[in-house]
Queue: 4 jobs
Job 1
Amino acid sequence: MNAPQTLHQLGQSLWLDNITRPMLDGGILAGYIRDFAITGLTSNPTIFEHAIGNSDAYDEAIGRKTREGKSGEALFFELALEDLMRAADLFRPVFDATGGVDGWVSLEVSPLLAHDAARTIAAAADLHVRAARPNLFIKIPGTTEGLAAIEASIFAGVPVNVTLLFSQAQYQAAAEAYLRGIERRIAGGLDPKIGSVASLFVSRWDAAAGKTLPSSLNNQLGIAVAQQAYRAYRELLASPRWRKVAAAGAQAQRLLWASTGTKDPTATDTLYVEQLAAPDTVNTMPEKTLLAFTDHGQLRQPLPIERNDGDAVIAACRQAGITVDALAAQLQREGADAFSASWRALLENIAAKARKLAEAAAR
């Protein structure tokens, strides 16, 4: 049994943080499902920017859709949905076998909508209908406006992956939005079983704080923040409020570790996978991190619930000059900005490919 399979047996779901058309066409994703216990997949604008920009695998589809009169966001979402619907079908047996707990793929709304609740709600509903897959999450950022869209989307029956969460407080706000949506469904006599995960970004903490902190605290802040969020997650699942909605048929919004590729070249490349082993959570990891963990990863003890070393680390980071809440807000803003930049580059790349293909066809 390899390391990913052992981690899966612990009770943590391993999802791949990547998708490309060659990965689907070449059977690579199917191999990861078979050999490495991969039970889900996430995508984001940066992933698609790289997938489309660094490959000619999408050129035929771009040329054909351009001739049909499609362009911009409409063309991109058709490309993305084609890939993610295929991936969702690969994971459908897992989804069915686990009663909808696992086997999910994720598609993000335009990051340009991060501060527009009404348009996010409309976009999420549209993509959910177009995908026509029960195991496809719509990713909505946990911004102030995003939280309103999350509640409304859950109430409308749209499964949501809450993205761009960076702290315990931001996680709790996302969990609250999810719960309000579920409680509204129960009050309205609707089925409360709507899937959701809350994605906490980990490694970006250490990349942002590394220059400020002493070497004794290097690469510890992200894990400490994750430990605090995990404790809040377990406390929520044990609360009377959650037990009430669970008794009505609701399914837990699982906590997901995102941004788990190590950014510090002096740290082990499996740091965030090994340190964040925890039952009833998800770790979505880049392909490089998955292969490294398979090759030389070591499974550690699961995260403790009662004892939480993260509090002491965060206290030490505060003394060293890190204001955790302010940095969390900064990281969320920067994350939204980075996805917006990738989104614009993605659409520009598609437009450039479309022009080049049209010129070649006209010769």
Note: The mean pLDDT is 95.
Job 2
Amino acid sequence: MSVKCGIVGLPNVGKSTIFNALSNAGAEIANYPFCTIEPNIGIAKVPDKRVDQLAEIVKPAKITHPVVQFVDIAGLVKGASSGEGLGNQFLSHIREVNAIIHVLRAFSDPDVVHSYGTVDLLRDKEIIDTELMLADLSTVEKQIIKTEKMIKAGNKETKERLLLLNEIKNMIEQSKSLRSANKNLLNLSKELFLLSVKPIIYVINVDDNFIETEDINAIKQSLKEEGAKPVILSGKIESELAEMENDEKQLFFDELGLTEPALDRLIKISYETLDLITFYTAGPKEARGWTIKRGATAKEAAGQIHSDIEKGFIKAQIIKFDDFIRYKSEQVIKEKGLINIVGKDYIMADGDMANFMFK
């Protein structure tokens, strides 16, 4: 399945630098607002050791990891919801993504102009949060007017919808997070493609000589109260790492006492935030990880490979990943009775290895 995470924030916070490091897509980086007008799209491989473990056993001709698409969206400014700085255009790009990665600038650099002159993470976070909510308020108010007209025209079934719309409007006006709303409100919010209901990940872009400052501690506390965990990284360091060979990277990690790039953590967190899991197929041609939503059925998983497999689904053979790694042979696993034959309604588990049979 196609998964998109939109990278947002004020101008000059390091979005494009982080985007380039994630995808090596070469987005233009410049020291002026709105350098990125049309969104850049890049693809990042999800770090997944299980695919590599499978490949060591089956020796396939090709190895394919799950991927996440990252969209570099131009910097938003105060007033974006009313059109400031091409805001309406940029906000429409955010509607198209599955999750938001909000980059907050914690680095000082006289050569990179800050939109508001100083580094202030709480202020910058509030500006973007407010613009997303104001854009949503405008959407909801238009829906309320439309629904009221339908009721006046005799469509009584829309009364419940009007009640829900007014509840959403009240939550936005009180600056309450829609992410904590009840199921009915959440479903309607998603139907309307509201921005402030999208899953969000905060990235704190720090100096390469990072020190915990009072400002960073304050934003971490604020995010903790929201139930959000920030990813702290240096876009500059990560972009340098992205260009290094593996041997160079390992030396760098050893020197700093790290085990992986911070961007790998960001990719994994993006995957988890969207409640995604991975199932696998493995054979002489390819070992591959496939992305599905948690709770997907075997038939739906088959559709990720090809729509014809989903349409003609008969049954699936499921092998647990740990069993395959332990016995390293499908024949041995079969002899031990560890292959599970399932129907279309089987709920896939993270790590399932699948072989689909279809008409």
Note: The two ends are 23 Å apart (CA to CA).
Job 3
Amino acid sequence: MSTSFTNRSFLKLLDYTPEEIEALLDLSADLKAKKKAGIPHRLCEGKTIALVFEKTSTRTRCAFEVAAADLGMHPVYLDPKSSQMGKKESIPDTARVLGRMFDGIEYRGFAQEIVEELSAYAGVPVWNGLTNEFHPTQILADFLTIREQFDDLKGKKLVYMGDARYNMGNSLMVGCAKMGMHFVACAPQKYFPDQQLIDTCKAIADKTGAVLEFITDPEQAVKGAHVIYTDVWVSMGEPDSVWKERIAELSPYRVTMKLMDIAGPQCRFMHCLPAFHDLKTTTGQEMYEKFGIDCMEVTDEVFESDRSIVFDEAENRMHTIKAVMAATLQ
């Protein structure tokens, strides 16, 4: 790979050029092919990484641990009770300790400034596994999945349906702007991304040819979409008390088969998971008992259809995370 990523952190896509993002996607595809063919790729043999999780996850933890093992590394998982970071020890002090013991650090938690501060003091690559503001490893997985479906990213229309104010709406908007895509945030206006970030992305779009739109009408928004993307209506760490408000305001933005059909036969459904599409979860059952709904952001019909590529997307978390670690640790 001609582009050098050595010793760089991966904190947000704003830090990377379109060419660098494309190079990481190419490496992801190459490592995925090797994995499928059973070809060893222990590119980081003998290295050890720390996985700092202040918010739990199925996909992020499994993706980092399996990817690390495939690369010949040893991961050490630190759950919220296993670290004194921010409680008895400052973030800079924690970063300097971990940086002396580990070759790389993953952080999944709260404010973006935490992962930025870890990177500033650690002296080793730091990877953002999710913050309140950004989720860059998820976007790499999303874009690899879209490339697999449509061959390239340029000009592809992605409609993000629902609450676009936080990490997924922000990161998809940034990623689409970087890669010359057509991004649509579809929601009530109060759920659009922060205006300052919109302005930043519009400046990027002026250079890449990307299109950014913000539309309140779902049927108008999805016409011609290659991807309709959604996420849960209440983000991790938000209080349960907001469910009533979100259900009332975002139910018109539920992804249904009608919307998929309006988009066209080319349209695929994506979701970063977990998804509330049935009553097989504790939260889903609780919302049914309180509000009488059997799904939230997406119907079970869409989620289980052959137009849904959510599990390809979930698998690609591993391959893209592997590429980020391999690129930055070599």
Note: The longest helix spans residues 18-37.
Job 4
Amino acid sequence: MTFQIVAAVAVFVAAYVFIATEKLPRVLVALGGAALMIVIGATDDATAFFSEDTGIDWNVIFLLLGMMIIVGILRQTGLFEFLAIWAAKRAGGRPFRIMVMLVVITALLSAFLDNVTTILLIAPVSLLVAQRLGKSPVPFLLAEVFASNIGGTATLIGDPPNLIIGSRGSLSFNDFVVNLAPVIVVLLVVLVGLCRVMFRSTFAFDADRAARVMALHEREAIRDRRLLVKSLVVIGLVLVGFVTSTLTGLAPAVVALLGAGLLFLLARLEPRKVFGDVEWETLLFFAGLFIMVGSLVHLGVIDAVGQAAKSAVGDDYLGASIALLGGSALFSGIVDNIPFVATLAPLVHDLVADGGPAARPLWWALALGADLGGNLTAVGASANVVMIGIAKRNGHAISFWQFTKYGAIVTVVTVGLCVPYLWLRYFLV
């Protein structure tokens, strides 16, 4: 067992170094690392493919697949071109105003959809807006993925880790809104200010390009009105399915796949047009990443770290909340926040059960740290991986370090602001 633990940690660290340095394609590194985990016995095929706790999270994989298919079909209607022209005209062709609009829209959508779905919907709009303005889409895409991770923190259904926390802590949708939405509004305003500084070179105004944008007619961008109506109806049904999933018992992944299948039947498009927009490399990267992290969970590595933290807490729940906030942000930025929260949630549950109401803020510290920490690196959250895949597919590769350069700033500032929030809200008596 000792050999397996050492070998598994070595494989994970090496894989992360390769992903960070981009010496090899990330999908190759993830799948190669997953294969090595099986070879050294850190996991096995049954655990990797069928374990709910330490294997591939098929809910995430199939949710992504279903939404990629839906967005691929929707792209055929010209809706994204319509939205791009509409947004650019409403902002007078000024890049910063457009970014603010897209950031606010992304954050709001992420609060009621999951942030991955939001990025799948909003990224194509950003690519087209940037093209019309003659700007690089990278700053817009980065701002939006930061907004999606921040906005998704506000609700139970906004970010996958929140679903895990809500289930473990018996926390309702309203619990999340009341406890997290106030600080998220503040953080969103702060993000807009950070974007103004970080991407200031992007906001140069070009009067000629703006004039050409203002002369465009957005309605002319719609290529297939009948398919647009069908797509919007299906997307509406999918959103209803997401919101009511706790009542119907249908997992979001099942809802997404049902919606994708229904729209595929209604659209009657050639399969290559539908499946050609699926980010297969992204899905395979997720699968490999889940297996590698799941192997560490399976061997008890992450659990050992959590137990050590548990023994150090004592009755100092303010200190524990701050430590959990910072630690969750750091580790979630490194190992992806979904498996991290899945591992830590049982430990927090025990702490809250022992400490009673005084320990309840630990849930909000975990949610804030894990969700906001997802902005730290390119692999910190599912939305990051999806956005980078979309950017690469459209000829705008975003390196690991390019993402981290901006993501680290956003994470440090937003997580730092959560410290006084937790203190003032729960411990200043």
Note: The chain has 22 helices and no strands.
